[in-house]
Amino acid sequence: AQSVTQLGSHVSVSEGALVLLRCNYSSSVPPYLFWYVQYPNQGLQLLLKYTTGATLVKGINGFEAEFKKSETSFHLTKPSAHMSDAAEYFCAVSGSSASKIIFGSGTRLSIRP
Amino acid sequence: NAGVTQTPKFRVLKTGQSMTLLCAQDMNHEYMYWYRQDPGMGLRLIHYSVGEGTTAKGEVPDGYNVSRLKKQNFLLGLESAAPSQTSVYFCASGRTGMSQETQYFGPGTRLLVL
Predict the structure, then answer these.
(1) Best of B101, B104, B109, B110 to mutate (most A CBs within 10 Å, chain A)
(2) Closest chain B residue to A46 measured between Cα atoms?
(3) pLDDT of A35-87, one tens digit each?
(4) Given pLDDT bands bounded at 50, 70 and 90, which one contains residue B56?
(5) A99–B31 C-beta distance less than 8 A
(6) Stretch B32-56: mean pLDDT, rounded?
(7) Measured between alpha carbons, how far is A61 from B80 in angstroms, rounded to an integer?
């Protein structure tokens, strides 16, 4: 079975500050890991994903995430927050079964001016 | 190229009423999915389809039915709506259904059941 835990349902940072959104996963098979972003009143869109190979994955809009197998983590970071980054972020895992992806409960990111 | 579209955007139902949500994709994807999104619970898979004419149950299928008569369309039906079905519904599609594949989401349908 697979599961995802996102630590912190709401994170608030100042514009220009580091963004760190935490995600831990559980998987009995090698995982594929995703971060999706949902802007207000929109559907989800892929930010980045880890499949195999390099453990540091770069995504759109300056975000990146590092797959750490020993810590079962896939935290999302961005060096400098921008007002346009305000959105809800979902971590997700798949791997054991085609067509099935498990989403975390989401983290809402707010940016303070 | 519209991607994934959903109809309607918002609907209010009374308990016991029925309705159908329509999802359409123009990317020629084989796989389509219906999710519901509830506060603090992320997205949960209701039903999915691996191709035209096929459907399968997801994590929370009770109270819903689906049909995939055409490859580009995936319909989600509520035969007798209940307040517990108040949610935001998202449709998604994928080309192959492989575990590492990106899913493409529609903008969502907000459903309120009174």
Answers:
(1) B101
(2) B102
(3) 999 998 888 999 999 998 889 999 999 999 999 999 999 999 999 999 999 99
(4) very high
(5) yes
(6) 93
(7) 43
Report whether pLDDT(A16) > 60.
yes
Q: Which tokens go with A41?
A: 């009143």
Decide: B42 and B60 in contact? Cβ < 8 Å: no
- List for chain B the helix, strand, coil content (%; round to 5): 5, 55, 45
Q: Which SS3 state, helix, strand or coil, does residue B97 take?
A: coil
Using DSSP's 3-state secondary structure scheme, residue A85 falls into helix
CB atoms within 10 A of CB A44: 28
By percentage, how much of chain A surpasses pLDDT 70?
Answer: 96
Cβ atoms within 10 A of the Cβ of B88, count? 18
Which amino acid is it at B84? Answer: S
